[in-house]
Design a protein that fits this description.
Elements: H1 2-14, H2 39-53, H3 55-67, H4 73-104, H5 114-139, H6 143-166, H7 181-202, H8 218-250, H9 258-278, H10 289-312, H11 318-349, H12 353-363, H13 365-389, E1 392-398, E2 403-406, E3 409-412, E4 417-421, E5 424-428, E6 431-435, E7 442-444, E8 447-450, E9 459-461, E10 463-466, E11 470-479, E12 485-493, H14 495-513, H15 539-544
Antiparallel strand pairs: 1-12, 2-3, 3-6, 4-5, 5-8, 6-7, 8-9, 10-11, 11-12
């Protein structure tokens, strides 16, 4: 109710959309041209739904603190809301990246802009919260930590809204300014100070039910996972607000660019990916030496083989080889978990392998949906590493009839053509592209559009030729008086893996969120009727036997 009252107050008294102008405008300028894309119909609403749905688990957590009902009931009723919020934040971030890549024409998909960061930080905190509530519900530990993550997640969502609407930090995403920034800043302080005070007050009643038995346990790996996620969020937060701090201290507003975030967050993220693969392979409570060796043997061997093959093939960048090897390690662990689960399911139901593997995620949704999310993150990681390290870009100028070779592509420019689409002027600069080894050329159509009332702001229509291995990304830069055209040409390896990984991540999230149907499993055949009931947690034990 407090959150709703705050936003209604803003709508009614501070930034009402129904306020009348004191003059009659002759005509509006229209929507900013770069926002005239279907992605803008989906990306902002999904992100805002993700922001504000964080308020639901936050409200449950505050109710638990106020009422003193500090058992796991608030987790049980809010877990699916936490997951739903995480799904919307994931979708919003992915759509924003897709829009930046396909519309802005700078050859990339993530620039660490302050507004991008403000959407990324709540996602990191919610990812940590998802793992933390699982540990608390399962083992009765991390209770104070979990409450702190709820408060942090909601605080970061309010901070993101404040950052976008206040205009205190320059951003390519800031399309308007308003007077609501100070109100959001006050509310941000309120939603941090009061909940933290409640948490301190109730902290004696939030002690763990049992100590962690060992650092080599699944709950410990989840805690380390949480710490890395929050470390990335803190690094990102510091880079985002540093220009303000610099201006306040020195009088000069510093600029924090993409290299800082890549260099600071890259190693942390790689460690996070490694833990993402290690955690599911470690039992709860305590891992014995034999269990660790049995569970880690194949994933470690797979990572080692992957690294060796990459070096033999000529890859010499140690960080890149390590990143690919870690990804191979995680994928091998996920495949091993699906194999074990599918094997136990076949023993119980006599289903064939494909059917057992397909039905496995729907039977144990949280566990195997999470594995699909992890697999999606691996695809994204491979795409990001490949497109960042092996990216090729070149500026070329072509007269009609001329050709140029960029990477493995030959580009031929037949000449530009102009036309009108309503009142919008369109200039198209087609390119015939022929990739080495192909026999038939294809045509791509980079263009520029000049909209009415935005004559000084022509927009670029990016032309992208996508394959599984790379994207040819062409931007129409300028048109010369002699008919020549200047192009920015990028060859971005494996970008499509990012979008495929994002889709798999969302699919896994939806499977984990989807309520269990309660359908009965097929009865086991007589040959395995004497087997004890097996849960997903018992899969490793059953296979080991």
């Amino acid at each position: 109710m407090t959150i709703q009252t705050f936003f209604l107050f803003l709508l009614a008294f501070v930034s009402t959309p129904f306020e009348r102008l004191n003059f009659t405008p002759s005509d509006g300028a229209g929507l900013n041209p770069i926002l005239r894309d279907w992605g803008m119909l989906i990306h902002p609403p999904m992100l805002l739904i993700g922001y504000m749905s964080v308020s639901i688990p936050f409200a449950f957590a505050m109710a638990a603190l106020l009422s003193g009902r500090l058992d796991n009931e608030w987790i049980k009723v809010s877990r699916r809301w936490i997951l739903a919020s995480w799904i919307f934040l994931s979708l919003g971030n992915l759509l924003g990246s897709w829009w930046a890549y396909h519309v802005l024409g700078w050859g990339g998909y993530w620039g660490w802009d302050p507004v991008e960061n403000s959407a990324f930080m709540p996602w990191l905190a919610m990812s940590a919260l998802l793992h933390s509530v699982l540990v608390q519900d399962r083992r009765g530990v991390l209770k104070i930590w979990t409450m702190g993550l709820v408060i942090l997640s909601f605080g970061l969502s309010i901070f993101g809204t404040f950052l976008v609407r206040s205009g205190v930090i320059a951003s390519v995403h800031s399309f308007s300014l308003s007077a609501i920034g100070p109100f959001f800043f006050f509310f941000l302080g309120l939603v941090l100070i009061v909940p933290v005070g409640l948490l301190v007050w109730r902290s004696p009643h939030l002690k763990s039910e049992r100590p962690m038995d060992s650092l080599l346990s699944r709950e410990s790996s989840f805690l380390f996972n949480n710490m890395l996620l929050i470390t990335i969020a803190l690094v990102t937060f510091w880079g985002t607000v540093f220009p303000l701090v610099s201006e306040a201290v020195t009088g000069n507003k510093a600029t924090v660019g993409k290299p800082f975030y890549d260099q600071a967050n890259g190693p942390i993220f790689l460690a996070l990916v490694f833990l993402m693969g290690l955690g599911p392979l470690i039992p709860w409570r305590k891992a014995s030496r034999d269990t660790l060796l049995r569970n880690l043997m194949w994933p470690v061997a797979t990572g080692g083989v992957a690294a060796t093959v990459l070096v033999i093939l000529g890859m010499r960048e140690p960080a890149v080889v390590l990143a690919y090897a870690v990804c191979a390690f995680v994928v091998a662990g996920i495949v091993l978990e699906f194999y074990r689960g599918g094997r136990v399911r076949r023993m119980q139901t006599s289903e064939n392998w494909p059917l057992a593997l397909i039905r496995l995620p729907w039977r144990y949704q949280s566990r195997y949906g999470g594995y699909l999310v992890h697999l999606g993150i691996i695809l994204i990681t491979v795409g990001v590493v490949s497109s960042s390290v092996y990216k090729l870009n070149q500026q070329v100028a072509l007269k009609p009839g001329e050709s140029v070779t960029v990477g493995s592509y030959t580009l031929t420019f037949p000449g530009a053509r102009q036309g009108l689409e309503g009142a919008t002027q369109i200039i198209v600069a087609p390119l015939h592209i022929l990739r080495a080894g192909d026999k038939t050329p294809e045509t791509i159509l980079p263009e520029k559009r000049i909209y009415p009332n935005f004559e000084n702001q022509p927009t670029t229509g990016v032309a992208i030729h996508s394959t599984a291995s790379e994207d040819l990304y062409v931007v129409f830069n300028s048109l010369g008086e002699d008919g020549s055209v200047s192009f920015f040409v990028f060859v971005n390896p494996m970008v499509i893996w990012i979008w495929l990984g994002g889709g798999l991540l969302l699919f896994g999230g939806v499977i984990s969120w989807y309520p269990k149907t309660g359908r009965k499993e097929p009865r086991a055949v007589s040959s395995v009727r004497t087997l004890p009931p097996t849960t997903p947690v018992d899969v490793e034990v059953a296979v080991a036997r």
